[in-house]
Design brief:
Blueprint (H helix, E strand, L loop, with lengths): L1 H16 L1 H22 L3 H24 L1 H9 L1 H7 L4 H30 L4 H29 L5 H9 L4 H15 L5 H30 L1
Helix pairs in contact: 1-6, 2-3, 2-6, 3-6, 3-7, 3-9, 6-7, 6-10, 7-8, 7-9, 7-10, 9-10
Length: 221
Amino acid sequence: MRALLAVFKRELALSFRQRSELMQPLMFFIIVISLFPVAIGPSPELLQRVSGGVVWVAAILSLLLGMERLFRDDFLDGTLEQYLLSATPAYLIVLVKVLAHWIISILPLLILSPLLALFLNMTVQMYWVLMLTLLIGTPIISLIGAIGVALTVSLHKSGVLLPLILLPLFIPLLIFSTSAIESVSLQLPYGFQLGIMTAILLFSLALAPSAIAYSLKVSLN
């Protein structure tokens, strides 16, 4: 536990030292949601109808912006190899790194969500369901995205290849999350969509850390 806590603290410290890279996904998220009402017009009904999809597409794209650096710096300075050779299981180390990435990248988005929801004319019920879908779905993005990062960490210009690999994998998550938000706007049950997303999250938590660790070992060989 002491080694894992040290890895977690290191990730937070390094992220706050690189503030420019830390702010890029957040600024992208804010800009997309702020400009979208200007692009499609001020109609409250239209904004409310597309609000869930807008927030989720902006969240996925903003997370992909900062995903590449998840293992990049550790690969370049040799820290990643030391992690894999240490006595601490590799799947636990990568799980801690993914958790740190989620806290650094997602929590600011969740904090800003109430303000940004005003731009899209979301109701209170829609906002709470949006928050639930983000809390359940964004860890899935981090876990699955980390597999793609691990597979391409040794490639040059992997930032171009990474979105092509990951975006198709996020389509089911996008469908279920926006469907849940649309259902609550129509006063329909939305528990089925949240249940499917929770099942995907549990499945990802069970398998993704081992897949990430194995992918890193393959990339280093």
